Amino acid sequence: YESLAQAATQAPADAVFDVAVPASQIIHVLRQLPDGRAVLIQKPMGDNLAQARDILELCRAKGLTAAINFQMRWAPFIIAARSLIAQGAIGEVHDMEVRVTVYTPWQLWPFLQEVPHAEILYHSIHYIDLVRSFLGDPTGIYAKTVKHPSLTSMDGSRTNLIFDYGDVLRCNVETNHHHAYGLRHQESYVKWEGTRGAIMAKMGLLMNYPQGEPDAFEYCILTEAEEPVWRAVAIEGSWFPDAFIGSMSSLMRYLNGETNTLPTSVEDAFRTMQVVDAACRSSDAGATTI
Question: From CA 36, how far away is CA 64, in angstroms rounded?
Fold first, then answer.
């Protein structure tokens, strides 16, 4: 199609519109789509909670079957971890951690330098949504996002998040995108610890940019008969591009009546945006003074 207007009027009735535009422009594109259609929207769901609410209300008013492309939920190593946890292999999860220490050339995306809390909205949002998909909604969040001396024009490119799930379940996200000191001490992983075992998933895609490194998936099951042993499992595929198949197929399967759940619907994604908003407000408010 040569234009959005042409696509909106000529696309087949069962077409899924894939909206991948800057977050602030999502609402303008949605207004031009026919009512009652299906749409997959690139994250974030607006640049702030007010925009997210407008998107949600517009989707409701137009009867759109809409989902946000929080594709990390379908990364192959995430699917494997979710399967083990669902089987009870590691017992009750009491600790979840995401740690990213890499070099990301943010200067390649100059539009991010105009977005408040850019790292939270465009990167850590993946982990916030992922945490929610495993642990549910937190009661609150502590957060701090800071600039880096080499990129002071960007409002935040290193972030610490602490999710409040009470006094037993611990959950942290820590990102540093300015580790420009070679591969040796780069880190990129998601870790789950449970009452009977643990899982470690290395996200190699984010390391050694832009070449990337292989992913790795390991798990450890506690037994009385032996010392803890970590076992490696070969996982086919990676976050990019394989996870994108999952986010699109989940919407298509929902439309085809193959499932009655739409995991990243705009209704659910709005709750992720509420946590994102709380993190931004927490960072702005600052720490308890001494």
Answer: 5
